[in-house]
């Protein structure tokens, strides 16, 4: 049962996203107007040190008025390599430059509304380069024991689904 996007028209756009209205044909022949958001890819990065601690950010999200642990993330600039964007975001937001990045997973956090793809990377090493350039993005940056991650997620301390998925994958890879 496949829906078919017959056409789209942009109703709003800025440098981060477009809001489009699509004419969608349903399998039974009916048509549906469906709003969707077209977004640039998001690159996410973190590091896990020898003590199996993961670098995380404690931040407030004004949209949901909630606090939670996240990983450094941001949009991929036009023409930018996704892994390079992940490394850039990690250093800008945490003050730590990752070593060689490994792809962890790619998720679509809200594929019923947006085409956003979040590409998560991790490194087994990081070098502290100084106070983060984008320190306004978080209240603090900490190395959190990876073994604590599943309970943190269960308590709602990692509210973003993309971050929870990546952290659970890291937990599985590093700790089984």
UniProtKB/TrEMBL annotation:
Keyword annotations: Hydrolase
Cofactors that this protein relies on: Mg(2+)
Pfam families registered for this protein in UniProt: NUDIX
PROSITE patterns linked: NUDIX, NUDIX_BOX
Keyword flag Hydrolase: yes
Gene3D superfamilies reported in the protein's UniProt record: Nucleoside Triphosphate Pyrophosphohydrolase
InterPro entries on file: NUDIX_hydrolase-like_dom_sf, NUDIX_hydrolase_CS, NUDIX_hydrolase_dom
Nudix hydrolase domain mapped to chain residues: 38-171
Name the record gives this protein: NUDIX domain-containing protein
Organism: Streptomyces lavendulocolor
């Amino acid at each position: 049962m496949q829906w078919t996007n017959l056409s789209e028209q942009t109703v709003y756009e800025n440098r981060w996203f477009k809001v489009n209205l699509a004419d969608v044909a349903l399998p039974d022949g009916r048509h549906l107007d469906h709003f969707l958001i077209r977004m640039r890819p998001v690159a996410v990065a973190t590091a896990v040190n020898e003590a199996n601690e993961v670098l995380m950010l404690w931040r407030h999200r004004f949209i949901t008025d909630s606090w939670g642990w996240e990983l450094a993330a941001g949009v991929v600039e036009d023409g930018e390599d996704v892994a390079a964007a992940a490394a850039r975001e990690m250093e800008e937001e945490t003050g730590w430059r990752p070593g060689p990045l490994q792809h962890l997973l790619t998720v679509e956090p809200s594929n019923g509304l947006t085409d956003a793809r979040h590409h998560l990377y991790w490194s087994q090493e990081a070098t502290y380069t100084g106070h983060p350039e984008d320190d306004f993005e978080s209240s603090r940056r900490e190395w959190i024991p990876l073994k604590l991650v599943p309970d943190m997620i269960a308590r709602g301390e990692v509210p973003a689904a993309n971050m929870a998925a990546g952290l659970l994958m890291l937990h599985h890879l590093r700790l089984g």
